[in-house]
Amino acid sequence: MTRDTYTFGDSPVAADRLRLLAEVYAAPSADLLGRYVPHGPALALDLGCGPGHTTTLLHRVTGAARTIGVERSPAYLALAREQAPPGVEYVEQDV
Predict the structure, then answer these.
(1) Which of its termini does the chain have fewer beta carbons within 10 Å around, N or C?
(2) pTM of the full predicted structure?
(3) d(Cα 52, Cα 35) in Å, to the nearest integer?
(4) 20-36 burial string, b = 16+ CB within 10 Å, else e?
């Protein structure tokens, strides 16, 4: 069985690209989450979380007790885990 690859890969350059995109879309994403996600859920999931920028945003805006980022790239998971705030964890899985 072959494993699909990311269009832009999961290299440091690709991770930096995702960081820039996260910065550009942080405010409108936070606004959307703030409007439509109930505050303080017990659990929030970020499927295909990449290097964790969206997971951290989801956790901060929703106030979830526990937030889990799910990602298949070991390289992205390593980056995400380096900056994970309390209450955020990451698991390796292909969704």
Answers:
(1) N
(2) 0.89
(3) 22
(4) eebeeebeebeeebeee
